[in-house]
Amino acid sequence: MRGYPVQGRKSAVNDEIVAAPGAVVLFLVNEHRVDQIGREIVLISLLGTVSVTVDGRLCDIRASKVRAMLATLALDPGRPVSYGDLAAELWSGRALGNARNALQAHAARLRKLLDEPALRAVPNGYVLDVSPGDVDATHFLDLAARGSTLVATDPRAAIDLLEAGLLLWRGPALLDAGDGLRCRAAAALFEERRLTLWEDLTTARLAIGDDAAAVADLGSLVTANPLREAFCDQLMLALYRCGRQGEALAVFHRTRAHLDDELGLQPSARLRRRYADILAQDPALTHRFAGAR
Question: Which of 123, 187, 226, 241 could form a disulfide with 173 if both were Cys (CB 3.0 to 4.6 A apart)?
């Protein structure tokens, strides 16, 4: 999906402006921060191109192997990664004469970018000694999990958390981290979690009656993910609530055609039930969260 849109308003989580739909937003890391013992905070961005900010300064990482090493370590902040695992990631299983020496050279280049204590050598490997909250991907997963638990009980609070999570994205995750299995698997995980976050966010918006905002974002989400039935189901409901019953039914027919053409499948029972309910104008379709205003 292109754009990674979120609604344009203030977030109650970090008091930053949330970008308008379609905008590409930056990981907000340009402030000078220090930890409790006076070291500079190192902030690492994985949700887009791999980058690092130290003392409010964005550091250019030109060497592809250094980017891959930083990304691999940042996927497990505070935990050692062995020489063998790093070598497998950086060289994708290709034989290397002296992997440890090569890793030490890349580690030396990485240390020049980071605050010295941030990268530590440990027996048989390295550890990136930063807080999980200082890696945007880890922070995103935390916001997504916290927001998801609140969707059913406090959708407005859930919206704040989920929108803050989307704000961290600058593009496809780990875009320039190389072809190693760890980074590719992590990129797929982050993307799937981004899409399920959108499902949670839309559920929360529908619960409070923000149907028009849901329609605006779901249109692009369905276009980018035509086989993802959850988005199609949510768009049908949002359109119906906006008085656009015909368009809601048309979404079903397009989805059915996509499923048949691409996979040889029929829509799920859930989607067929939504279609039948809209045809029947079931009053239950307009039920909202009890606290909605």
Answer: 187
The amino acid at 285: L
The position carrying tokens 């922070």 is 139
* pTM for the structure as a whole: 0.84
Tokens encoding 19: 């970008």
Domain ranges of the chain: 1-207, 210-293
Q: Which tokens belong to 204?
A: 């929360």
Topology classification of domain 1-207: Arc Repressor Mutant, subunit A (1.10.10)
Of 181, 188, 162, 187, nearest in space to 49 by CA: 187
The tens digit of pLDDT for each residue in 206-226 reads 999 999 999 999 999 999 999
CATH 3.20.20.370 holds for 210-293: no
How distant, in Å, are the alpha carbons of 34, 174, 192, 270 from that of 89? Answer: 31, 13, 22, 41
